[in-house]
Automatic annotation (TrEMBL):
Protein name: TetR family transcriptional regulator C-terminal domain-containing protein
Originating species: Tropicimonas omnivorans
InterPro entries reported for this sequence: Homeodomain-like_sf, HTH-type_TetR-like_transc_reg, HTH_TetR, Tet_transcr_reg_TetR-rel_C_sf, Tscrpt_reg_YcdC_C
Entry superkingdom: Bacteria
Keywords: DNA-binding
Matching SUPFAM superfamilies: Homeodomain-like, Tetracyclin repressor-like, C-terminal domain
Length: 196
């Protein structure tokens, strides 16, 4: 692949991320993506034959990046520090990648037609593995008793809500930055959960 082809694919991916995160899958069109990328529709189709192809590539790339913080949870680490570190990394990822977070949320709201196999396969196994680590820490008395899967899903819900529902968060709090104060609040909340 030439340098120009790589550059155009990157432009298309960036434009598609913007269009999909703003309009959802159904509201996105190849015309809108091409316009956002500053390319003609035939030029876009040269690289991607359909919006499904672009969407799937974006989601696949997102999932591996999105799961890095959970993958990094170290069974040999200090339990509270590992879990609070995960919360912090997940919140940072939401802050750095709000469009990607909305893209993923939209896919889930659609019933996950493109990523269902990943959810029931690799993601299911990763969550089971890390939940077992968390529950092992609880069984050893190193943290308060907690359902590992429920804790992980709570972390997802709380860290992503700030960007997935930023319009609501801004309206309710009156704050310009929906993440202002979130890190301190979540650390306190999860620390209390882990200490019982």
């Amino acid at each position: 692949m030439s340098r120009i082809q790589k550059r155009n694919r990157a432009r298309i991916a960036e434009a598609a991320l913007e269009v999909f995160s703003r309009n959802g899958f159904r509201g996105a069109t190849l015309d809108a993506i091409a316009g956002e990328a500053g390319l003609s529709k035939p030029n876009l189709i040269y690289y991607y034959p359909s919006k499904e192809t672009i969407y799937e590539e974006l989601l696949t790339g997102l999932l591996s990046r999105w799961l890095e913080p959970l993958t990094a949870l170290d069974p040999a680490g200090e339990p509270e520090a590992e879990i609070l570190g995960y919360v912090s990394r997940k919140l940072d990822l939401s802050r750095q990648m709000p469009r990607e977070s909305r893209l993923f949320a939209n896919e889930i709201l659609r019933g996950a037609p493109l990523i269902a196999p990943h959810l029931t396969g690799p993601l299911h196994r990763l969550v089971a593995e890390k939940a077992a680590v968390i529950e092992g820490w609880a069984a050893a008395g190193r943290i308060a008793p907690v359902d590992g899967r429920q804790l992980i899903m709570s972390i997802w819900a709380l860290t992503q809500h700030y960007v997935d529902a930023d319009v609501q968060v801004r309206a309710v709090t009156g704050m310009a930055d929906p993440l202002a104060g979130a890190a301190a609040h979540l650390e306190t909340l999860f620390r209390r959960t882990l200490r019982g």
